[in-house]
Design a protein that fits this description.
The complex is a heterotetramer, with two copies of chain A (76 residues) and two copies of chain B (148 residues).
Chain A lengths: L1 E2 L2 H6 L10 E2 H7 L2 H6 L6 E4 L2 E2 L7 E2 L5 E4 L6
Parallel strand pairs in A: 1-6
Antiparallel strand pairs in A: 2-5, 3-4, 3-6
Chain B lengths: L1 E6 L5 H10 L6 E8 L6 E8 L1 H18 L4 E7 L1 E3 L4 E9 L2 H18 L2 E7 L2 E4 L4 H8 L4
Parallel strand pairs in B: 1-4
Antiparallel strand pairs in B: 2-6, 3-5, 3-7, 4-6, 7-8
The chains are: A alpha+beta (76), B alpha+beta (148).
């Protein structure tokens, strides 16, 4: 799993390994609490293997999938 | 001529723009914007993080939209990632077209979208500490200019 | 840093823009437009006539208005006169500012006004004959964009 | 007197010498007919010693003054 921007600080690292398969509830349960809460922000997007999910709550990731958690991008 | 790149090292805009202009013979005008890391009070460095599987495709998608929207001969879009010092170039967008309005508007369009819709996360170092930069309301109003 | 010139000889825009950028340390962005003589069907050469006592003061007056209207650190405005061949640069406007909107809009503003309100008369040579170029309606609509 | 743009073609030269003093009627009378008619176009401006006249019909030029006849500038 890849954590971008300030989510990397909350996760303590830019990448984490979690055991799959994972749905959204399973992912949140596997993360530190502050990170788990932060990714509920509707501006946080989720990508699986480089493809953005339209609805992150519909996440279904397998053992070898790369999940990216993407906070809002920074201003100019 | 289309040249879209993410660069991890310091670059000199003139070394890109000269060849880009030469690569579009018969153009009427070239508009170029170069953004540099500002010398903001107390800022020692700026770091840009990106997510490779989204950032470069996102820039190509933006280039596609610019070619659809404007009558362009060429588009150069180069963005730095990594750690930058104040004064270093961070972004260079150059558009070549037969007519100046297309060239200028394409650069304006790409800059507004690169700044607020591209997948970059920035943090700046002040007094030895890194601080994440939040989204800005200004960026959304810049984008709204193009939604007609 | 303000650099306003009429040039009677061929110039290389990069040789002006590099030093101009260097002369404005701390800038956030530089926008540059370079116009070249188009390879229009059958056009062998373009001649620009000017009237010295009006043309250069007119460019300085335009620069004054750009500095009044936008928050600029520097403005470079260079225009060729004399006989030019297709592909040669004819105009170069570069604006340096803390913020990109000022830099881009200042270049857009100066180009719209240079093209239609500056004292240049142009004629082009086709099949060995010179033909004067008339004013265009498009230029007036470009100018109207700035009258708010 | 300096003739710019296509007015130089009508005058046969980019510059002419006329005896002063001259007002607008005197200037028109001293010029070739096609040029004299052309400068009635309201878009033709007149400058004396580099200063544009608000009303060209009010021209008053002395012996050593430089009169410039300026047709509309060319499009981009």
């Amino acid at each position: 799993m890849v954590l971008l921007g300030k989510l990397a600080d909350l996760g303590g690292a830019p990448a984490l390994s979690l055991a799959g398969p994972l749905d959204w509830a399973g992912l949140k349960a596997a993360l530190p609490e502050t990170l788990s809460e932060a990714i509920d922000d509707p501006r946080v997007r989720v990508a699986v293997n480089g493809a953005l999910l339209a609805d992150k709550a519909a996440l279904q990731a397998g053992e070898d999938d790369e999940i990216a958690l993407l906070p809002p991008v920074s201003g100019g | 001529m289309r040249d879209i790149r993410l660069l991890t090292r310091m670059f000199i805009p003139g070394t890109l723009i000269g060849p880009f202009t030469q690569a579009n013979p018969g153009l009427g005008g070239v508009c170029t914007f170069v953004g540099e890391v500002r010398h903001d009070q107390g800022v020692e460095a700026l770091e840009l993080t990106h997510y490779e599987p989204l950032t470069l495709p996102g820039m190509h998608d933006l280039a596609d939209r610019a070619f659809d929207r404007f009558t362009l001969m060429g588009l150069l879009m180069v963005h730095r990632v990594g750690v930058l010092r104040p004064g270093e170039p961070i972004v260079c967008v150059s558009a070549a077209a037969l007519h100046r309005r297309d060239a200028i508007d394409a650069v304006d369009f790409c800059m507004d979208h690169l700044k607020s819709a591209a997948w970059f996360w920035k943090r700046e170092k002040r007094a030895g500490q890194w601080h994440w930069i939040e989204p800005r309301a200004q960026d959304h109003s810049d984008l709204a200019r193009w939604q007609s």
